[in-house]
Amino acid sequence: MEDEPLILRLNHVPLKEAMDKIADVFQADWVDHHDFIRLERSPERIKAIQTAVYLDRMSRFKTSIDELVNLRKQVQPLNDKTAADFVNLYAKSFGMSSPNEDRRLQFIMDSRLPTMRLAIQILERMDPEQLAQIPFNKRVVFSSSPNSMQLALPEIEPTFLQEYAASRAALAKAFQTLRQDQRQNLYELQSDAMASTGQPARIVVRTQPYSGPGSLTVQLVVIDDKGNEMGEDSEVLRQLVHGIDGS
Questions:
Q1: Is 234 exposed, middle or buried (0-12, 13-18, 19+ CB in 10 A)?
Q2: Displacement of CA 136 from its chain's centroid (Å)
Q3: In which band, very low, low, confident or very high, does the pLDDT at 102 lie, cut at 50, 70 and 90?
Q4: In what order do the strands lie in the sheet with 151-152?
Q5: How far apart are CA 130 and CA 14, in angstroms?
Q6: Has this prediction a pTM greater than 0.90?
Q7: What is the pLDDT of residues 13-53, one digit of tens each?
C-alpha cells in the first residue's frame, strides 16, 4: 500500500494552501530536490513526534491508573462479614441463570476482588514515565524479587499482602457456601476464591502492548511461599471513554 500513489482532486484550492495542509497533517516538510518535491520528516520533526507520542502515552497511563485508584478507594476489602453478601450478589448478577451484560457493573464489582485490589495498589506505586517508555513491541517483566532478566517493582508494603491474604481467605470461605453449579459458572471469582495453604510471597508484573501505542496490558501474578500461583489480574492502561466512578 505504501508504494501506491495517492491522488487528490481539489476544487479551486490554491496549490500552496493544499501543500501546507498536507504537510501539517503528516507533520513533515516539502523538500525541493530540483526535479521533484518530496514530503520528508527531518530528524527534528521525528524527535518532536516521538516526544509528543511519549507524553500522550504517559498521560493516558496516569489517567487510567488514577481512575483505578479512585475506584478502589470507594470500596472496602472483603472480610468474613461482607464476603458472603458479595458472592451472593455476584452469583445473582453474573451467574448463568441471569447473566448480566453490564460490563461496567462487573468491572466495579471485580474491583473488590483481592487480586485486582492488590494490582491497583502496586500500579499506583509504579512510575507512569517508566511504563510509557516501554517500546510498543516489547514485553517487560517486573518482580518483587527480580532476576537478571527482570526489573524491580517498587517496595511492596507488608500491609498490602496481609490485606490480600485476609480478604482472599474470606472470599474463599464465602465462595464455598454457593451451590456447586453456581461456583462452576463464576469464572471471574474462581481464581481469587480457591483455598490456599500458602501465604503471598512474590509478585510478578508483566506488561505487553494491547491494541495500540496508547494502551498497555499489565498482568499481575501473586505467587505464594510454596511457589504456587495464588491469583492473577490483568488491567489495560488507557484513557477510559467515561468515568468509572458514576460520572
A1: middle
A2: 14
A3: low
A4: 151-152, 140-143, 200-209, 216-224, 229-237
A5: 46
A6: no
A7: 998 999 999 999 888 999 999 999 999 999 998 998 888 88
Cα 92 to chain center, whole Å? 27
One-letter amino acid for residue 211 of the chain: S
Distance CA 199, CA 231 (A): 12
How many CB atoms sit inside 10 A of residue 165's CB?
Answer: 19
Domain boundaries, the chain: 45-237
Residue 12 φ/ψ, nearest 5 degrees:
55, 45
Dump pLDDT digits (tens) for 226-241: 999 999 999 988 744 3
d(CA 160, CA 145): 16
**158-175 vs 83-94: helix axis angle to the nearest 10?**
60
Extract the C-alpha cell encoding 233: 489480574
Strand partners, 32: 37
What pLDDT score does 2 carry? 61
Within 8 A by CB and 6+ apart from 224, the residues are 196, 198, 199, 200, 201, 230
